[in-house]
Each structure stands twice: as C-alpha cells, then as structure tokens.
Design brief:
By secondary structure, the protein is α/β, with parallel strands linked by helices. It has 2 domains: 200 residues, Spore Coat Polysaccharide Biosynthesis Protein SpsA, Chain A (Alpha-Beta Complex), CATH 3.90.550; 69 residues, no CATH class. Helix content is 39%, strand content 16%. It is built from 10 helices and 11 strands. The chain has a 7-stranded mixed sheet, sandwiched between helices. Strand 2, helix 2 and strand 3 form a beta-alpha-beta unit. Helix 7 packs antiparallel against helix 8 and helix 8 runs antiparallel to helix 9. The longest helix has 14 residues. It is globular, with a radius of gyration of 19 Å.
Length: 292
C-alpha cells in the first residue's frame, strides 16, 4: 500500500508572531506533511512574506482568502482543504502548536484502526501556565451525545480523511463558534469512525480577548446559531446546556453590572449539579476550567 499523503491547513488572521510558532511546530513533526497551506483571511503582505520566506518544510504555499463570503477560520480551513489533493487533512490554528509526534501518531492510529479521523487530547496554555485538555469520553460516542457537549475536538486536534471531510461539506462557514463540534457531529451522523490518541499531542492557546472562547456577544450569537441549526435533535437537557453557555458568554467585562448579575443568576439556574461542583473545585484550586 502506498504511503498516504497529508496536507496541513493553517488559517491565520493577522497574527504573524503566533503563525511563526505554529509553522515551527509543523517543521518539527517526525512525519512531515506533503504540503502546508497557510490561508490568510486578511490578505496581509507581511504574512505572505513570512510564508514565502519560511524554510524547512517540503512544500509551503500562501492562499489569500480575504474575499470570502463568510470570512473566518472555517472559511479559511475549507479554502485550504478544497485546494488540497492529499488523502488526509490536518488543521492547525495559527495560535496553536502540535507536539512533534502529532501527525505520525495520528496517521498510524488511523492505519491500524481503520478510522476516518484521529484526534488527540492536548494541553491548554494560560499565559505561563498549562492545564490539561483531555478527551472526556470513556467510550465511542454517537452524534446525538455530542450535540451540546464537546468531548475534546478542536480545530487543531485531529487528522481526517479528505474523502469524509468533503462528503460532509467541510466546516460550516456561517457558524462563528462551535464549528469544530458541528463538524464532528455531522461526521458521526454519517457513521464515520474515529480513534483517540492516548497522549496529549497539541497545545492550545487560551489567552487573549480575540479568542473564540472569550466571553462576548459574538460568542453568544454563535452559540444560538448552532442551537438553531440542531434544534430538531436537541433534547431538553442539551438545550439547557446550550442556553447556559449563552448566558455565560454574556457575562463579559465592560457590560452593565445589572446585566452581568442577571446572566450570572440564569446561568446557575441552568447549571447541573456536576457543573456546579466543577466550577466550585476550580475556584477553590485557583485553576480555570474550559469544560464547566
């Protein structure tokens, strides 16, 4: 059997200093991709120069996606994927990094399991500190189980067969958030199979107000859009969980104190006992959590 080919797609948005670190993590892979495509939704000349001058990768290309109908990471990922001619696709956000073994172990896991997607647990970087970003599921999941709960899939944590990616239509470019979970839900709904690596193999950056997990109106609107898209299949406890996420997103700095208090109360009314305990433990330990 011929060696499978893989294309790495890196969406970027005016963050050259972070992009350089992401590219360096690709250069250090023990299994090099056949091609790296950096997709820029700003059309930045400095980014173009950075990519054209980067050395150490077999084949690297710059793609200007500034004219996209729905600009953002999902549109850039799709643009890079549609231009690829490889057997597999791996996406890496410009503010994230891969551990050196990520591609090699992902392709090996797909090879011996027969899966269409391999994903990995990782590490979250908070300033100078780090926290675990585990794969939370203890068994194989169905798409209905993931509708309002992300077991650990992110835009930088998986390798997927190009065939399955294209058959489900890629990322939904209209969703500003939850686009990685939405892709995974549609992947599972088509009965494609996945496998999970045992060791953390990527580093996710969680700092900065512009991060997709930051609390703001944009995130709240995005969660509601996701909720509307999957409304027909959502059960009551899943709707409750998503509504809680909307109210949590609306508790951001700069908002009127009365509104923050309102969203705080509603958020806790929508919380499960497990979520309450998770947050309480995080507060006591002084460590943040991405999953409560």
């Amino acid at each position: 059997m011929e060696k499978p080919t893989i294309n790495c797609v890196i969406p970027t948005h005016g963050r050259d200093h972070l992009l350089l670190k992401a590219l360096e993590s690709v250069r250090l892979q023990t299994r090099q991709p056949e091609r790296v495509t950096v997709v820029d939704d700003t059309g930045s000349e400095s980014t173009r120069v950075l990519v054209s001058g980067f050395v150490g990768l077999p084949c690297i290309a710059y793609l200007d996606n500034s004219g996209a109908e729905h600009p953002g990471a999902s549109s850039s990922r799709n643009a890079g994927a549609w231009s690829a001619e490889s057997d597999f696709l791996a996406f890496l956000d410009d503010d994230d990094r891969w551990e050196p073994e990520f591609l090699e172990e992902s392709l090996a896991a797909i090879g011996y399991s027969g899966a269409d997607l391999a994903t990995a647990p990782g590490t979250v970087e908070f300033g100078s500190g780090f926290a675990e970003r585990p794969w939370l599921a203890k068994r194989v999941l169905t798409h209905r189980e993931c509708l309002a709960w992300n077991p650990g899939i992110t835009g930088s944590s998986f390798v997927i067969s190009a065939e399955s990616f294209r058959s489900i239509g890629g990322f939904d470019e209209r969703l500003p958030v939850f686009n990685d979970l939405d892709l995974f839900v549609r992947f599972l709904a088509r009965n494609y199979k996945y496998t999970v690596l045992t060791a953390p193999r990527f580093i996710q950056t969680a700092d900065g107000a512009g991060h997709l997990s930051s609390r703001n109106e944009r995130r709240a609107r995005g969660v509601r859009m996701y909720m509307e898209k999957h409304r027909a299949e959502l059960r009551w406890h899943q709707r409750r969980r998503l509504l809680r996420e909307i109210h949590l997103s609306k508790r951001y700095k700069g908002q009127a104190l009365s509104l923050r208090a309102y969203h705080f109360v509603v958020m806790w009314l929508l919380s499960s006992p497990t979520q309450f305990i998770q947050v309480l433990r995080a507060k006591i330990s002084g460590r943040g959590t991405m999953y409560a």
